[in-house]
Design brief:
With 169 residues, the chain is mostly helical. It contains six helices and two strands; from the N terminus they run H-H-H-H-E-E-H-H. It is globular, with a radius of gyration of 16 Å. The mean pLDDT is 96.
């Protein structure tokens, strides 16, 4: 039995976005309990040249929706990056999970050999077959931003662990 690209993507994105939503909820509670300004966590960075937590979450969602849409041959929805607080980020995660869950698994058939074009018409244009796009680019990028979000919150004193990161499976 072969593994479909739908099975290798949408459920993985959904699981880890669920974990990300849970750690963000714990972060919001942590800030409220300790009377910490939420922006202290939302704008935290591991190093000055890295994106803050808020942007890490947005990018994780962008990879989940973008990779899933491209593999399904669907249009990638364009969303503004205007989230300002934990509730806004929770809404973005929920919207992402809803979108990727709406993609028909049958639309992923043949996605492994489908050409995926990234950044068309720019000097960074890149063409990948669907399987390489998912396994060598999309999932690693997604994992990086989810992991960085987790690390920022853990470093910020939020009591979370590996079980929180993994989400429900």
């Amino acid at each position: 039995m072969s593994l479909s690209l739908h099975t290798a993507s949408v459920p993985v994105f959904t699981q880890l976005l669920g974990g990300l939503a849970d750690v963000l909820a714990k972060a919001a509670a942590h800030a409220a309990e300790r009377k910490i300004e939420p922006d202290a966590l939302l704008q935290s960075r591991l190093f000055p040249d890295m994106f803050p937590l808020q942007r890490q979450v947005q990018i994780a969602c962008d990879f989940a929706k973008g990779v899933s849409a491209r593999l399904a041959g669907a249009d990638v929805p364009a969303w503004e990056d205007n989230e300002k607080n934990f509730d806004d980020l929770q809404a973005r995660i929920a919207r992402t999970v809803e979108f990727i869950g709406s993609l028909d698994a049958a639309a992923f058939e043949g996605a492994g050999t489908r050409e995926i074009l990234l950044r068309p018409g720019t000097p960074k244009e890149r063409r990948l077959e669907g399987q390489a796009y998912l396994l060598n680019y999309g999932l690693p990028q997604f994992f990086f931003h989810v992991t960085t979000s987790y690390a920022l919150l853990r470093h910020g004193g939020v009591e979370i662990g590996k079980k929180d990161f993994m989400g429900k499976y």
